[in-house]
Every structure is written in structure tokens, then in C-alpha cells.
Amino acid sequence: MASGVTYLDYQSTTPCDPAVVQAMAPWWTEDFANPASRLHRPGLTAAAVVQHARSSIAASLGFGPEALIFCSGASEANNLAIKGVAEAELRRGGSRRRLICLATEHRAVLDPMRYLAGHGFELVCLAPQADGRIDLNQLEEALSAETLLVSVMAANNEIGVLQPMEAIVQLCHERQVLVHCDGAQAAGHVPLPSGLDLLSLSGHKLYGPKGIGALAIRPGVELAPQQHGGSQERGLRAGTLPVPLIVGLAKAVELGEADRDSRGPRLAQLRDALWERCQGLGGIERNGSATQCLPHNLNITIQGVEGTALHQALRRDLAVSSGSACAAGEPSHVLQALGRSRLEAAASVRFSLGRPSTRADVERAGDVLEDTLKTLRRP
Ligand SMILES: *Cc1c(COP(=O)(O)O)cnc(C)c1O
To answer: What separation in Å is there between the alpha carbon of 360 and the centre of ligand 1?
Structure first.
């Protein structure tokens, strides 16, 4: 990492694994044909490798080989899932208009939902419990005969909290309500829930390339395309398939499955050591459930410091986050949904560990935090 900065922001993005880069290499230069060119051998070769990647990714997500739509990332996958379902309901003359999500969803879920709320749909945005978990009783009350879709992320990008997806799926399916899950932070990190209707995935959150993602769609779920202009991806997503990125995504998913069960406990140990260090500094509280949580996430709120000064000081030595990389400086809506004030949300830090993280990294983070607080809290 540049200039001695310790990178602990793996939930905003991960480095592409060298094995992923290697797997992609020939598909940029030698085998560059368009997989939609079915009249020549190079095109058919490209189509075959895409098909292979499609089947292996889908299988590891718990879906059939034809379930996957490749797209640019989880933002696009979420848009396609949510707006696609809504528009398909209008098209078929259905009467379900209610959409439900959690207030702590990523903006790539919240914003399409809000967009639809301005176009004849009704949005119910549920407040999480204090630990960031969904209140299943509240969800059950919100599920009406008019409910079309519930969207809940498996693992939160800011606080790492894991949601009880199977229970959510059961409540929804008893009422013929579709369930979408933004799995960007879960895939490649923790086991994925089963029984979902729609699941979004992002390459760069699991040591794959940026600019590629997928939406897995259970057979029978109708979607209206959100990008027109070609018959690729069953007419649901026009555009030439990025073969190298697709090959890279498949490799990243494969590598993620291979080391997930050893990586999780190792990073949890490092994370716990960092949290212990934080507790020793005093006036630091942890955000979100400490048990139902990704192993590589630690989100804290620091009392007695001002957010801007805190992050200005930290960034000399650490790459950490105060919220989502996509929120552009606004105090975190996730932490505010948990009951934090704007000032508290600003004086919060998300540490997220990754495959390259070491004990030295978290020790350095602890040292930097200690020094920073000594300076900032000096009366
Ligand atoms: C990063 C992220 C996204 C956006 O993914 P892109 O592939 O960058 O579009 C969406 N949802 C969650 C939970 C994320 O962490």
C-alpha cells in the first residue's frame, strides 16, 4: 500500500487476487472474441468459457446454471432486481405495490426503492433493532397482501451485521412475497442463505475485478430489463459480455469458497484483538451485533472527539472508513438508524480486515488510534 498507509478498508473494496489476474490474462489479449459471435470458433470458445463461469458461480450461490445475469456490479444488480420486479408487476397488471426494506440497506437498494416510491409504489422502510438486526415481528406486520418485494442485505457493509435471511424468506414466501438479497458483503465471506428469489453479487468485494457483478434469479421470477439494446443475458441486460471480468469473477468466487472457512476465524481473531485494544482506550462503543456479524468487521463510535478531526488524523497512517464509500461524506445513515446522532455517526470508524491483513496491521491500527485519541482528547 502506498506511503506506509495500513489498509483496513476491505469492505469498500478488495485487491484483485493475483490468481484472478492470472486467470483473466489470456482473455484480454489472445482470446478476445465476442461471446455473442456464434459464427466463428473464437467466438464459440469465448461463449464456452462464459458458460463455464456462469455455471460454477451459480452453483456456489445455490442457483441453477441459467439463473445468472452478468452485469457491472451489485449496484446494477440491485437496480435490475428491484426496478425489474416492480416493472414486471405493472406489465402483467398485478396489483402489488408495497416494497419493504431495512433502513440500513445500501444506497444501491434504498435509492431504487425511493425512485419507485415516486412512481406509484409504496415504500416501507423498517427501522432495525438497536443491534442492527431486523425485527421479524415488524416485518410480519408490514407484509400485506399488497406487498410485492422485500429486500434485505445478508451482511451490512458498514456494521457487518448478518440478517436472519432464512426466517425472512419463510415469512415472505408464506405470503407469496418475493425476497431480494444484496449479497455483496456476504458472498465469498460467509455461507449464503438459501431460498432467495434474487441475489446480488459484486466482484470487487471478494478479491475479484471491479466492474463485474451478477444477479441470480430464481426460475419463474419475472423481471423487466433495465437496459435495452441487445439480446445478451436473455434480453435482460444488453451489452457485450466482459469475458475477462467474468472469468475473474468465477476465479474469485472459487478462491473465496476455498479459504472462507479458515479466513473467517483468522480475521475474527485479529478483529477481536483490535476491539480489545479499543476497549482499553476508554469511551469507545461498538456498533451493531457483536455475535451476528461478519468476522472481518469492527465499527466503533468514539466519545469525546470530533469526526472530521478524527478522520483527518487517522488518514495519515490508516485507510479506514467512517461509513460507506458510496455515501460521499454524509454521516452514516446506518449508524443513525441504530440511534446514533449525526455527530456520533461522524466520530465513528469502520475497520474492515481482509485476506492480506496481519497481526502487525491491527497492532499498528491500535497504536495509531491510541496516539490520535491522546492528542485529540487533550484538554
Ligand atoms: C459495494 C456494495 C454495493 C455496490 O457494489 P458495486 O459492485 O460497487 O456496484 C452494493 N451493496 C453493498 C452491500 C455493497 O457493499
So the answer is: 28
Q: What is the pLDDT of residues 28-68, one digit of tens each?
A: 999 999 999 999 999 999 999 999 999 999 999 999 989 99
Domain residue ranges in the chain: 6-14+260-376, 19-255
Nearest CA to ligand 1 atom 12: 184
At 99, which amino acid appears? L
At 217, phi and psi to the nearest 5?
A: -125, 120
Atom 3, ligand 1: which residue's CA is nearest? Answer: 74
Across 283-290, average pLDDT: 98
Distance CA 193, CA 155 (A): 11
Q: What is the pLDDT of residues 225-264, one digit of tens each?
A: 999 999 999 999 999 999 999 999 999 999 999 999 999 9
Element (H, E) at 332: none
Active site annotation includes 16: no
Distance, CA of 172 to chain centre: 22
- Which architecture, in CATH terms, is 19-255? 3-Layer(aba) Sandwich (3.40)
Q: Residue 47: how many CB atoms within 10 A of its CB? A: 18
Residue type, 33: A
Q: What top-level class would CATH report for the domain 6-14+260-376?
A: alpha beta
Instruction: Report the predicted TM-score, pTM, of the whole model to 2 decimal places.
Output: 0.96
Residue-wise DSSP of 175-225: TT-EEEEE-TTTTTTSPPPSS-SEEEEEGGGTTS-TT-EEEEE-TT-----
Task: List Cα–Cα distances, 272 to 161, 261, 307, 367, in angstroms.
Answer: 15, 17, 23, 15
Ligand 1 centroid – CA 49 distance (Å): 25
Phi, psi (deg, nearest 5) at residue 331: -55, 140
The torsion defined by the Cα of 122, 75, 132 and 289, in degrees rounded to 10, comes to 160
Angle, alpha carbons 111-116-119 (nearest 5°): 140
Distance 159 CA to ligand 1 centre (A): 14
Instruction: Take atom 7 of ligand 1 and give the residue whose Cα is closest.
Output: 73
**Nearest atom in ligand 1 to 78's CA:** 10
pLDDT at residue 328, as a whole number? 59
Specify the ligand 1 atom closest to the Cα of 153: 13
Average pLDDT of span 340-366: 97
Instruction: Please name the amino acid found at residue 335.
Output: L
